[in-house]
Every structure is written in C-alpha cells, then in structure tokens.
C-alpha cells in the first residue's frame, strides 16, 4: 500500500497558515478544525503557496511552557519546524510508518514535485495498516474455511 492510497481515501485538503500569523490564530484554527497540525505556507511572487514549515499542537505547548509572551504576540515563524520531513504519494506505508515512529513525527506533509499534495497523520497510517491486516485476515479465514 502506498501513501497515495491513503490520500485517495482521506482527501488532499490541507489546513495551512501563514508564518506571520500568531500562535493564538493557530490555536483557534486547530480547535475549530479538530486537527493537530497546520502546514505553514507563504505566498511567492507569483501568488503560489510555498511550503515554509509545520506547526503542531506540541509546538504551542512548548511555546506556552517556555515563553513569557501571550500567544497573540508570538508569530508562527518564531516556533514552527522548518526542517521538514516529507513523503510522496509513491512511498510505501510501511516505510513511512517506520520513519514517523523513529523520528516521533505525528504529521507528515505529502509533496508532489515540491508542491503540497496532502498531509497524513500517524493515525491515518495506523488505520491503513489496520484495514489491510483486517482484509488479509478475512481472506485467510475464508481460504481456511473454504
């Protein structure tokens, strides 16, 4: 199974935010959307979205615990992760699951030709693996019974 298979089921929509937004805006968007991460994008000269980083609920927690300023005074650019680990739709789910586990990453942007094509969470990967194993289990039971 490939990451593209997950995106086919899940969809390719990605919640994004500007690096100039405040952490309070991030919190509001995370809560409103019931998600744990936002991809940070800026507009290039042609008006296209350009990937700049990612900000997660954990980043907000760390900023709250270590910062001395209110969330509405801290910019996303000040706390976002800029060194991104990404996937492509052609990557194998098993490989990406290992990467996410080893690197302790819960959200992974998916890129095609350097452009954002979707995002997956560790929950998406676990669900895909569970569904695959359940299907294999059903086939094996049918084979043994039949």
The total of beta strands comes to: 5
CATH topology: CBS-domain
Strand content bin: 15-25%
Order of helices and strands: HEHEEHHHEEH
Class by SSE composition: alpha+beta
Overall geometric form: elongated
List segments where confidence is low: pLDDT < 50 over at least 5 consecutive residues.
none
Distance between the termini: 27 Å
Count of domain modules:
1
Q: How would you describe what is shown here?
A:
The chain has one domain (3-145): CBS-domain, CATH 3.10.580. The protein is 47% helix and 21% strand. The protein has helices spanning 3-10, 23-33, 57-66, 76-79, 93-103, 122-145, and strands spanning 16-17, 37-43, 49-56, 107-112, 115-121. The strands form two sheets. Strands 1-2-3 form a three-stranded mixed sheet. The longest helix is centred in the last third of the chain and has 24 residues, at 122-145. The chain is elongated and about 65 Å long. The mean pLDDT is 92.
